[in-house]
Amino acid sequence: MSQALSERTITLVKATLPALEAHGMDIVREMYSRMFQNPEIRDLFNQSHHDANGSQPRALTGAILAYAANIDNLGALAAAVERIAQKHVGLQILPEHYPHVANALLGAIAHVLGEAATEEILNAWGEAYWFLANILITREAAIYDDLAAANGGWKGWRAFEIAEIKPESSLITSFVLKPVDGGPVLRHQPGQYLTFWFDIPGQPPVKRNYSISCAPNDATYRISVKREPHGLASGWLHDNARPGMVLKVSPPAGEFFLPEQVERPVVLLSGGVGLTPMVSMLETLVERNPEVQVHYVHGTHGGQTHAMGEHVQRLAASRPGVSSSTFYEAPAGNDAQGVHYDHEGLIDGAWLSAQTPIQDADYYLCGPRPFLRALVTQLSEAGVPNDRIHYEFFGPTDELLAA
């Protein structure tokens, strides 16, 4: 990676942008088709992102277009590169996997573009691919080493047993995990996730990411999992998990987390199961940042789907400067306003502007795409600078959420 990209390669890659915009999805789908002919490579990926909705192909198509457009200004892609590296570490992607992707990508470009994919074009994309691949390999090696060297850290997959199971709502159940080897666990950054390798009977290996929903500690992790409609992994966990069951887990990963030094008020915004990293952040702020003003704001459908509500209320009541506000989109007859929830409807920018320190706070958001699209846009329109809006959603980043 010490050698810079040649000017000729930069010119050729940027010249392919129109073809990529026209045929990018076809190229990416062909690339995945080629890669997944190898079961070892196929099993590295979360296959739920390769269903009929094509969220991962759309995400990769967008990433390739962004890389081509910014190949002469790679600093603009630093955040995206870090996100990809963190995802790769969670999935245990290693340097020996990269040649498979290179061969599949270049083969797909040649197949889809036909005669337009000249040898010169393919060589330029080969050079561009390996330039970026080496950046990722170098960053991932550093993350792996840091995780292994930290107290309670490890490399690869570690065996954890389920120590406790707690239903949190009609859809969400928490699982407390402790290492089988009896050693300590790495203290995660609040907001990060764990990656799981599930051996589900009749299925190839299944990989899933679940946010850690507790504050960092040396002994256990907690994940709080929503049963998704037709969700292979979430359904299997809800139906089959028992105390003592052993799961394979890779170390905490993710670039969305609360910083060590919190210098401004914090607003934690969540929709549905997006509360999981927010509860981790809330527990942490209550425990180690007594001077920080915290607003926890959560939206859900109603009382049946409201998870961890009493726990959050106890945390908010445990010290001054912490408030909790809950929105029910469609409260049922037995949902009492002022007891189970505070507001009917959806969280919106006008309410946030009136009830939270809009000019001073950092905003952390996690939830479904419509939730994020609306609130990230409204916060930006309310004057919150982009560097104070931090968001995460579950699945590939496949669309621009804010200007």
Secondary-structure map:
Elements: H1 7-15, H2 17-35, H3 39-42, H4 55-69, H5 78-91, H6 98-113, H7 119-149, E1 158-167, E2 172-179, E3 193-198, E4 206-211, E5 221-226, H8 232-240, E6 246-253, E7 266-271, H9 275-288, E8 294-300, H10 309-317, E9 322-328, E10 343-344, H11 349-355, E11 362-366, H12 369-381, E12 389-392
Parallel strand pairs: 7-8, 7-11, 8-9, 9-10, 11-12
Antiparallel strand pairs: 1-2, 1-6, 2-5, 3-4, 3-6
Terminal CA distance: 32 Å
Radius of gyration: 22 Å
How many independent structural domains?
3
Q: Which strand-content bin applies to the residues?
A: 15-25%
Count the beta strands: 12
Helical content (DSSP H or I, runs of 4+): 25-40%
Mean pLDDT score, rounded?
93
Q: What is the CATH class name of the largest domain?
A: Mainly Alpha
| CATH homology group of the largest domain | Globins
Which shape, going by the Cα principal axes?
Answer: globular
Q: Which structural class do the helices and strands define?
A: alpha/beta
What is the H/E string?
HHHHHHHEEEEEHEEHEHEEHEHE
> Which fold does the CATH topology of the largest domain refer to?
Globin-like
Supply the number of helical segments. 12
Low-confidence stretches: 396-403
> How does the major sheet shape up?
6 strands, antiparallel
Spatial order of strands in the largest sheet: 4-3-6-1-2-5
CATH architecture of the largest domain: Orthogonal Bundle
